[in-house]
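Q: Convert this sequence to structure tokens.
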Amino acid sequence: MKLIKIHPLDNVAVALEDIKKGETLNVEGVSVTAAEDIARGHKFALSAIAKDAPVVKYGNPIGLAKEDIAPGKWVHVHNVRTGLSETADYVYDHKTYDLPEVAPRTFEGYRRDDGRAAVRNELWIIPTVGCVNNVAAALVRENQDLVQGSIDGLYYFGHPFGCSQMGGDHAQTRKLLAALVRHPNAGGVLVLSLGCENLTQDQFKEELGEWDDKRVKFLVCQQVEDELEAGSKLLRELAEYASQFKRETLPASELVIGMKCGGSDGLSGITANPTVGRFSDRLVALGGSTVLTEVPEMFGAENILFSRCQNRQVFDDAVKMVNRFKDYFVSHGQVVYENPSPGNKAGGITTLEDKSCGCVQKGGSAQIVDVLEYADPVTKKGLNVLSGPGNDLVSATDLTAAGAHIILFTTGRGTPFGAPAPTVKISTNTALYDKKRNWIDFNAGTVAEGESLDDAGDRLLDYVLRVASGEQTKAEQHGAREISIFKDGVVL
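A:
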């Protein structure tokens, strides 16, 4: 299969393999001859498209023709422009779709004292300020002997913030770090402070609310003579507590799975993203939870999502979320459609509408049950939408803070990064999977080679349950774990 017409209304097709100039291709009984070379992932016209007429892909307009485009011509940034603006009208047109029938599934996870499920039993060090990142790193290096038995690892999550911030940024840093402390994958957490930062320990404890003092310990480095000695003592107490947890059989309905994409290409919305969408529908059918974020990469495809909001209140919340992000762009003097990236364009994505229509495929067909603010916890079973930017590490940190046990990350170009939660890299094409086996965990490129999306979704569900049961992702194997905190204001 060398090409695909995704939707009956489309006036472009996507090359699944490189197509040479002069090749004649049959598309639903109509012959089209390539007027020039078309690279894999790129689009070509199936019929004449007049100047200023919509270019249609996924059954939706993805831009407007800059010029008359003849059948067989390459369709990309040189002859297509965005149709987006900073304003849009949204109408609640509720749609529902049947979810697949899925037999009950389980995984081998940990049951926390508060009743929550976890897929890892790790020790985490959370610095409240960037000044103590090096202390946290030293504590991790010097206490690796604690990683034994049921303790899966010891990690710290450095960042440059926690001081010299004001207002919303200060509150956002505090909220994000407290959410990480609560994450169920951490069997024990050491909160590490300096002592003079404006994110004081008292402030942090107030943000954290109730905590179990067997699971969470606090250390202010300026208040002790030897912070490494004091920190090691607290880590050993945490390890003793965390070592009591053992893997046991838990229902898949307790899983919370984050979904995002990065380094996308022209196949993202055809192979990997809809495979994740099929997975999401299956987990939701099992009673589990999935989380979709990257709000700026919903621009131009919002209505595909909004029609599945389960009620008017969820719809209104979703509209507010999108409009707030548009206002954020405008307040900084930026247009909302300054996307896709150079790598996206090289892979065949032409406009933000093109990227967004592919991005939202990760949401499958389930009803949206809740709209969450940045770093808010998932509290409802089903498909959730989380406010956050498209940046890979910022949004993956946001998903972790929301409580995602595992993050599914689709990519057409590859990336080695990992979030605090196990991060599964899913390739859109087999060439990437074969080239970067040290980065990629799961190949969805097989969909372009004939595998059905349903079969790929079943295969992904099987893999996620193995990761939930302890199988390490490539990022985990390489120790790739980082956080990045969303900020918007001044630094003092």
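The chain has three domains: 3-81, 122-244, 250-477.
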